[in-house]
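User:
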Amino acid sequence: LSILSGCIIINVKMRIAPMNSPFDENNDPLYDRGMNSNTQWIKEQVLDRFLRYVKIDTTSDRHIEEIPSTPGQWDLLNLLVTELKELGIQDIDLDEHGYLIARIPSNLPEGEAAPVIGFMAHVDTSLDITGKDVKPQLHENYDLGVINLGSGYKLDPEEHPELKRYEGETIITTDGTTLLGADDKAGVAEIMTAIEWLKDHPEVPHGEIEIIFTPDEETGKGMNLFPLKKLKSVYAYTVDGGEEGEVENECFNAYEVKIIFHGKVIHLGAARGKLVNAVTMAGQFINMLPMSESPEATDGRYGYYCPLEIQGSLDKVSLDVFLRDHDESEIQRRIDAIRKMADTTQGIYPGGTVELTVNKQYTNMKEFLAKKPRGMEIVEQAVREAGIEPDVKIIRGGTDGSRLSEMGIPTPNIFTGGHNYHSRYEWAVLSSMVKTVQTLLNVIELWGKER
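Assistant: Predicted structure:
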């Protein structure tokens, strides 16, 4: 009897969603096959899609202005078009810049309408670590031990303590030679799985839904040519977050400063009093950047300067510096400091010049989300109905959603179940990916009740 009672308690906890939730026994055609039938189906489908998508090399290239910047992104986008058509979706638009928008019509009774909502993910992966020939590894029934990736690399729970939360789960990793691509192919797989589930459950009422897949998010240029006028959504969600339960409602303000150091070149044998070395100028400038305000020295709300890339020679050196902070005033302080560092460098090297170009990349989405708080209320409730407590937090980065929010469609960020993005140590948790799919379905159902 005590064992049976324990089972009943577990059932109650998993069934905390309100009546008519997609996972309610009164509404679920799969329920009579056992309470885990939905979870098992989602697990199989999201894993199959994820493993299929990560094997496509979609590494983007920040040095190429064209969008998409790499041909592999087209490969995944075209595959997604095919799969959307196989799901019976007819309203599909893939434009010449790789923006894919698909619509699922409302199934509400005639005369009723709910707000149109969207779900967004990006198809490219970061240039920081190669995404070519990804060989995902499955580690089932994880025993809390060290995971040997291969090529001499490993995931040690003492170094990556988040692993300790997932004893007995399936962990998906790289083989140590590439990144995994959970950022953001986990999000793509989760959205596609949710849409397939919804197609097979037409009895679940919902409003019109827009599915949005974008290129080149990792270059910071992914929304530059976005066809905003095509969207009907009044609210959207990027599925591009991290660990289980996270919902991100605030991101960095982001700027890029392009700095060019111009020297004066002469034969090195006759250089005394005449040579102005652009390489030395750039080195002097970089040494002025405060180490206490670098990415490796900050966390939480603290912003940073980050020298990202440098190239050149004696005559000319170009340097790209990223500036990040959650507060715009702090960004402006750093821009002013950069200008003073440039003037100082010019003063130290008479005859040399320093040229600055400041470009804004994206804005903190917090103020835009605050104008429509209902969207955050719904996603927090959706996470709870998936059986976990939402962890609302800031993101030390940005998403396409921050740009879309600035364009007028508030777009917070939902977790994908991924960890250690942009590295060969990247990993994802299959059960967390299932929770993401369930969260998306709950979001759809909850918005379907809005009028």
